[in-house]
Amino acid sequence: MKxxxxxxxxxxxxxxxxxxxxxxxxxxxxxKPREVLLEQQLDQRNFTLKVDKESYIVEMPSVSxxxxxxxxxxxxPFRVEIKSYTLKPAVLSPQPMLMQTQRLSKTVVEGAVTxxxxxxxxxxxxxxxxxxxxxxxxCVLEAMKMENEIxxxxxxxxxxxxTQEGKAVNEGDALIVLK
Length: 179
What we know:
This protein is mainly beta. It folds into two domains: about 1-85, 2-Layer Sandwich (Glycoprotein, Type 4 Pilin); about 105-179, CATH 2.40.50.100. The chain is built from one helix and 16 strands. The chain has one helix at about 95-105, and strands at about 1-5, 10-15, 25-30, 30-40, 45-50, 55-60, 70-75, 75-85, 110-115, 120-125, 130, 135-145, 145-150, 155-160, 170, 175-179. Strand 7 (about 70-75) and strand 8 (about 75-85) form a beta hairpin. The longest helix is centred in the middle third of the chain and has 11 residues, at about 95-105. The chain is elongated and about 50 Å long.
């Protein structure tokens, strides 16, 4: 999975290799490989990572749409923004091109709150017709053993729920429609 990540205004190209849970994995930052291991899950939003041979305590807030995240690493605050990294179609082989075309052909739902990453919906906290304020937790998405609260990006009324508890979702899938 490739991403463009901006930390305190400095942008990095980051690629994360998928691996079995509990195993070290490789993260390339601007094409420089680093070995990373989730050492300890302290709670839903706090964990210890070992990067190469050094350990870091990471504190993360809940994920709220595309808003910058105030992340602390060893108690030092950082402002982090994560953007999808897209490849130019000319460099894709036919199979990835087909997969990207299928991904792009998803129906865009006006007013939808979308999944910021792939994962599984573990809890839906609202129902159709509920009035919500900006910041209200709509649902909880589990990804990489972390539970991420998906909050309303604006105030509105829940018009539709496009997912269900236990369902796997991909990044960009419509979860809840607000009007």
